[in-house]
Amino acid sequence: MTSATDPNTSAASAASAAATQPAVSVAQPLVMSILLACGGAHLINDMIQALLPSIYPMLKTGYGLSFTQVGLITLTFQVTASLLQPWIGMYTDRHPQPWLLPTGAVATLVGIVLLALAGSFSAFLVAAALIGIGSSTFHPEASRIARMASGGRFGLAQSTFQVGGNAGSAFGPLLAAAIVVPYGQTHVAWFLVLSALAILVLSRVSSWYRSHLAAGKGKGKVLARHQLPASTVRRALVVLALLVFSKYFYMASFTSYFTFYLIDRFQMSVASSQLYLFLFLGAVAVGTFVGGPIGDRIGRKLVIWISILGAAPFALMLPHANLFWTAVLSVVIGLIISSAFSAIVVYAQELVPGKVGMIAGVFFGLMFGFGGIGAALLGHLADLYGIAWVYGLCAFLPLAGLLTVLLPDVREH
Predict the structure, then answer these.
(1) DSSP letters along 311-345, please?
(2) CB 3.0-4.6 Å disulfide test: which of 42, 105, 156, 275 passes with 165?
(3) What is the largest CA-CA distance in the chain?
(4) What 3-state class would DSSP assign to 150?
(5) What are phi and psi of 129, to 5 degrees?
(6) What is the pLDDT of residues 235-294, one digit of tens each?
């Protein structure tokens, strides 16, 4: 008479279950030192990126550039930063490459050198492209490492990583106003110090990453915790892409043209306008950090609702405000609208588990791509109709937050 439970069958079933269970069921420690290192490197990376638009007024005046040419410089950076990211993320999901992190920082360093020495529109395009390539190699792998070090607190990890980038974007214009604008283009070279520091930090992070990969060999396939059909997942990803489109088209009006708007409408100096841009970008950094942990608690879909649609009333008021209220409204808009991105990335990663790098690459790529296209298009419209008209048009973009109603409910546990 045979036993009702065959030991060999039980062992095989247990092994099969272990190989297919969700990775989140295995407790992983929160490695805050790695999260902070990724956030710090992101700060430096995005600070250098923010340097470029911060010196646009100086370059426009010094080299006789049009708004269209300014937009094309941004487009070059954004395209090189966006088109490569999904492919890098897709490849490194299958074949992780820790060495990409410091290598990308080297490309950024070369871009800084060229930006400090460039004397023509074409040279500015090449410098922007190199900085974009550095960014495209950084984001997918660094985002994956942040998730690895999260201890299951994915929203916190993504926000910590992302807030470093937003803080860098905020401090970039401030440093440009203090170092580059008063003393000239060659002083861009001071940012080489930060770039060298990023190479050092990312070399240490890549060493931890390599060790973590070696320790994790043989772990099972990651399965989705939702039961959504593939068609619903695809529709949700399209909706998320449209939300990123509206968010970053609107953000492009600030990151590339807010200083021009303030100078044109309120006759401010370049240095003073940079301080107002710093206030906006500082608010973006705070909102980004808050959005992820709140999404861990109340759900990412609700955060996306509040973030994008919630900014709409303030965006509609902005073109009609005086200088004081322009400053106040820009801070409020920055706080609200920035909280969505971490929630969007983590929501998408949970829709498509096991594709962390690809999803990070796609959504960071969409962020840069839509931002670049927006900058080029808005620059051309500003040449045709004026910068104030552009702000009146962009005020309606946050209403796209209504599309959030089409997202399925994904319950986080």
Answers:
(1) THHHHHHGGG--HHHHHHHHHHHHHHHTTHHHHHH
(2) 42
(3) 94
(4) strand
(5) -65, -40
(6) 888 888 888 888 888 888 887 788 889 998 998 888 788 888 888 888 887 887 777 777
DSSP 258-306: HHHHHHHHH---HHHHHHHHHHHHHHHHHHHHHHHHHHHHH-HHHHHII
Task: Give residue for tokens 């470029």.
Answer: 52
Radius of gyration over every alpha carbon of the chain, rounded to an integer in angstroms:
22
Q: Please calculate the CA angle 16-18-19 and round it to the nearest 5 degrees.
A: 65
Four-residue CA torsion sign, 27, 31, 35, 37: negative
> For residue 153, what are its two tokens?
């607190």
Say how far apart CA 276 and CA 284 lie, in whole Å.
Answer: 13
- Regarding pTM above 0.90, the answer is no
**Which tokens is 357 given?**
């790098």
Name the nearest CA neighbour of 138 among 402, 322, 365, 369. Answer: 365
Query: What is the predicted pLDDT for the residue at 198?
Result: 92
* pLDDT tens per residue across span 160-218: 887 788 778 778 877 888 888 788 888 888 999 999 999 999 999 988 988 877 765 54
d(CA 222, CA 230): 16
Q: How far is 42 from 38, CA to CA, in rounded Å?
A: 6
- Partners of 30 in the β-ladder: 150
Q: Which residue has the higher pLDDT, 338 or 220?
A: 338
CA dihedral angle for residue 316, residue 321, residue 327, residue 330, rounded to 10 degrees: 10
Residues 6+ apart with CB under 8 A from 39: 146, 160, 161, 163, 164
Structure tokens at 41: 């490197």
